[in-house]
Records
---
Amino acid sequence: MQTNEKTIHVLSIDGGGIRGIIPAIILRALRERVGTDLHRVFDLIAGTSTGGIIACALATACHGGQPYQPGELLEFYLGNGPGIFRKHWYTPLRQLLRPKYSPVFLEGILQSAFGETRLSSALTPLLVSSYDLQSQTPFFFKSHKIARDSSYDWEVWKVARATSAAPTFFPPFHLQRGREDYALVDGGIFVNNPAMAAYAEARRLYPTHTDFLIVSIGTGDRRDDIRYARAKRWGLLCWAYQIVPVMMDSVSEAVDYELDSIIGSTVRSRHYRFQPELTIAANAMDNASPKNLENLQQQARAYLADVCQRLEDVATQLRQERGSAMPGIGYAADVAQA
């Protein structure tokens, strides 16, 4: 098989609820350095949960025929976060018996943000993760799959809702396609950091290419510091509060290790991980208090100051031609076999 020397550019965005503020700020800085929309420099954009929402916004023609800009996504989180994660006096009791939050506000703003846009409007291949409870299997929304099966042309707001249905926080999303029936939850339960899944998909999409640039954006490294003395007597109720963040964080860190090992063994492929440690911002995925919204922004800005040169190095590589020959929105026919 003849190989192509052009480098395939892959963007991956983690899950993390309101902490999506952090990748929005990092991506705004990256976009400023690249000097053009991110869908023009990435050959695949992938996301999970809040990262899935960001990926959909950056990679589809959902905003007056254009994608959203990262700065607009920052305003999206700041303006809507308190409504999505609105707490009431009965919230502690509610979460014992039902999902912590009603999905009504979330679904309303997703429908407002994405309108009637469909996945087929993707401007570059888009990969968004979810998990089907009924079949107990991972479920990936793939824009490039539509070329051979038009029934996969979902409305983008539904894709965003499915990928962000975090267990215990929101109810599953019911998605139907003919006789097929899915109960979808947050893809973060198995791939909160979708970088490895994105790399695998990119290898499948571009089989003649050997060089890959993986840019992986996190939502902040939690520091829960759960000690043995605290956890040794936990039963079902106590673990219910901790299992989701513990599981999602462990998956993310495992992906970092795996990708560094795999990419590090190749000659030209590179893996750049941007993940600040949370020191002033809250760990919780649903802390949308005014103070924490400001702390998340401060955390991201302080991190950017530390990685300024590294981000510039990535931007320099991205300013080169995309690895694929896909001319923007017309790419679908070229990947019909993916």
Note: The radius of gyration is 19 Å.
---
Amino acid sequence: MLIGERRQHVLKLVDRDGRVLVSELSESLGISPITIRKDLDYLEQQGLVQRTHGGALAPHNSTLIDLSLKSKESQQSREKQAIAEAAASLVQEGQCILLDSGTTTTAVARALRRFRHLTIVTNAMNIAAELSDTDFDIIVVGGNLRKNSLSLVGPLAEDALRQIQADILFLGVDGFDVKTGVMTPSLLEARANRVMVAASRRVIPVFDSTKFERRSLALIIPPSGVHTVITDKNAPKDQVDALRAAGIEVILA
């Protein structure tokens, strides 16, 4: 394994588990503890981990790592399912639903199978495939493929989205700060998301509670652009109170 590959592997473990131990990494990778410590020191210098005695933790308030869908799908799976069911309860037959890419929005797509007549607009190829055996009208925007998220972005995607008027947008979130807003690691994804927001009557970020107080590279929209937030019951009370005080509906699934 090359140095860059090894460090990326470490980052994925940190994002998945919240921490790594030098002893476990040394054993699983067959590399000396000294080398692992140097890797962790380097990653800390880049602001990607927080060094602790014997290992490292995920950095506070950071989601700069752009992980693949596969690496995210097992994280907070129960919470995502509960969030998806709550999201589906807000939908009515015959509506046009805009689905952003992500593992939580994919769970929402599966929950929407209870309906018979919906129009689904998405930039996520996996969501289109997930619903391909339904009777829904499915519109997939064009664009450049982001392989990590299986989403289509860029000018073609943005132009197509400008032609849409959706009833509800379910928006995936990599980071949510009650003062700053909704964030993602990708600038191109953020651009497409902003067009989705403009095309939708109701904007609903869907995300598990671990995304609170976490920042990422690109801002999608400030909190003022959000109508409803759906998250899980472990959401920090002060964050929920701050959102409600700002006039944003919060649903705890």
Note: DSSP finds ten helices and 15 strands in the chain.
---
Amino acid sequence: MTDAPPVIIAEGLTKRFNDFIAVDRLNLRIEKGTVVGFIGPNGAGKSTAIRMLCGLLRPTAGRASVAGFDIAREPEAVRAHIGYMSQKFSLYGDLTCRENLRFFAGIYRVPHRELGERMHFAIAMAGLEGREDTLVRTLAGGWKQRLALGCAILHRPPVLFLDEPTSGVEPEARRRFWDLIHSLAAQSVTILVTTHYMDEAEYCNRIALINAGRLVAIGSPSELRQRNLGGALIELECTPLGGALIVLQQAAEVREVAIFGDKLHVLVRDAASIGQLKPFLEQHGIEVGQSRAISPSLEDVFVQLVLRPDAKERRE
């Protein structure tokens, strides 16, 4: 750790739309070269928070700075020092890869003497050598997203905001995209990324779990997995799965239950409660297969923190 100030700071950052609170007193401190994942359900406030940090939305209350610039007082300076990829693919399909890069280089005021070098880097990073004059609309999703990332970093910003960058992209292309993210972080670029994919959260240095506009937990993947969920977690095979879910939601010893693939993850009050589940389910006509105690995954932590009624914001 260094004594350098955080690159991104948010203190009590809030955004209201009439009576709706989209972001509720968000506190963040993100260090240089860190990859932070914003994880949360649809409507949790992730995209709204990013748009405020990009200087695109004025906060209702609180303050924040990005790369040393206040988002409310100096939004243009903020935008000059960041790269941004939105949820929706933002390049021009009727232009070639080369033409898109030239267009965004002009927007970001890339010096002409550096244009060739930076365009070459972006093309190589996207794996598009030999396709420079291909229309973007004909590219596969993974190539499009890597090209969009190349456009977003043409001006070498110290901070990069990625809003659902791999949504709808095939798994192999997603993995390659994350390789690019980490190569940028290794060059001291600070990256904040939103994602719906829990496996992608494992690639982040830190994870911020967001629900109903509030920060409910923040830490490294290992720190979050080690949280005390307030009971024992078991993996349970049942038939029918949906019926077992409904039955277990009524059991006094069950704190949380959720479907994970073809099994259930059940959070019970304590280890002694595990033996009570099989007879309880069988009394309700549920066939019970194997069961075993498991360590919580990131998805288990997320489900428990988001679903519990007393979820609180964790302040740094």
Note: Confidence is low (pLDDT under 50) at residues 311-316.
---
Amino acid sequence: MILYHGSTVVVEVPRIIIPNRTLDFGVGFYTTANYTQAVVFADIVMKRRKQDVQYISIYDFKMEQASKTLSKLEFTGPDEDWFDFVCQNRNGTYSGCEHDIAIGAVANDKVYATIGLFESGILTKEQAIESFKVNPLYDQIVLKSDSALKLLTFREAIDPREVTE
């Protein structure tokens, strides 16, 4: 399986680093199987860091082996379990089982806004979850352990602004 990671640096040797903010699926190395989503991530990171460079690091991932040997938490869509998991991670209150890999939809800016409306009591959980089903959500595959990272092999890195189709 090919995975992508968007950033302002080339990441040949991924590591799990404690972030300075709370993320959708907690601590881990964030990737996606969707190239377009990786470009969106790279652009967000570039703007956040006020830099003018971005890269898509490309990897081979042994998903079949990971599925057989590692613990995996997988969400098939934006359902109640996914919503609770994202909210708890964003709030720093997740206390459930830790997994080697977490897979599910990306909580983009629209999702964050909807979660805010839920947290302020404007939307019910059911209304919030239904609103996520209107727009497509890209995937994220978060490698949360060194065992998962060992199944990832760096291929190359590219500047997406230099890619012509």
Note: The two ends are 22 Å apart (CA to CA).
